[in-house]
Amino acid sequence: MNIFRLAGDMTHLLSILVLLLKIYATKSCSGVSRKTQELYAIVFLARYLDLFTDFISVYNTFMKIVFIASSLAIVWCIRVHPMVKRSYDKDLDTFRHYLLVAASFLLALFLHEKFTFLEIFWAFSIYLEAVAILPQLVLLQRSGNVDNLTGQYVFFLGAYRGLYILNWIYRYLTEPRFTRWIACVSGVVQTALYADFFYYYFISWKNNSKLKLPA
């Protein structure tokens, strides 16, 4: 564990708490892509298949359970909660996310570090996480205006990936056998997807104005 990974984990956790705060405080999921949340649920379920077979630490196990449980809770709220689901922007959230699932799984079958069941699904989760934010970004661009909590959620999610890139650089420099190149490349791709959002988020913060994304 290093400071960059810890900061990344805490930022990731903060992004989830912000999203849960928005949903439970406002009883609304307006501006939130259900499809992105479903992709994240798939990501965590696929990545943490070793939850009951490989024990690393209490912290590691706790974080795995938190990410799985929170992602499923968010999807449940958007799909099932009687008040929350009424605010879902179905007409704006039209990204064909199943194509991302299929493409990520096929890529994992051909590009992986070890040809084992757990490693294939680990690679699949890494590839899928790299593009899981796309439905959310498309929805925000279509809606134009972005409410404060949704904007903060996406910002913290992007910051988490940026911190993890620093974590991988640190591990590469300090761990002789660090070879997680799949995670490194996918992390760079994922962070790049946030570039446009970060630009408009900074402009909004600088001008103390409401965050707006161009259509």
UniProtKB/TrEMBL annotation:
Q: How does it sit in the membrane?
A: Multi-pass membrane protein
Give me the Gene Ontology terms describing cellular component. Answer: cis-Golgi network; endoplasmic reticulum; endoplasmic reticulum membrane
Database matches in InterPro entries? ER_ret_rcpt
Report the subcellular localization.
Endoplasmic reticulum membrane
What's the chief localization of this chain?
endoplasmic reticulum
One MF term in the entry's GO annotations:
ER retention sequence binding
Listed GO biological process terms: protein retention in ER lumen; protein transport; vesicle-mediated transport
PROSITE patterns, from UniProt? ER_LUMEN_RECEPTOR_1, ER_LUMEN_RECEPTOR_2
* Domain of life the protein comes from: Eukaryota
Is-annotated flag, keyword RNA-binding?
Answer: no
Record's keyword terms, sorted: Endoplasmic reticulum, ER-Golgi transport, Membrane, Protein transport, Receptor, Signal, Transmembrane, Transmembrane helix, Transport
Keyword DNA-binding found:
no
Which residues, if any, are the signal sequence? Answer: 1-25
Q: What Pfam families does the record point to?
A: ER_lumen_recept
Entry's transmembrane regions:
58-78, 98-115, 121-141, 153-173, 179-202
The UniProt similarity line reads: Belongs to the ERD2 family.
- This protein is called ER lumen protein-retaining receptor
Origin organism is Medicago truncatula
From the UniProt record, report the name of the gene that encodes this protein.
11415903
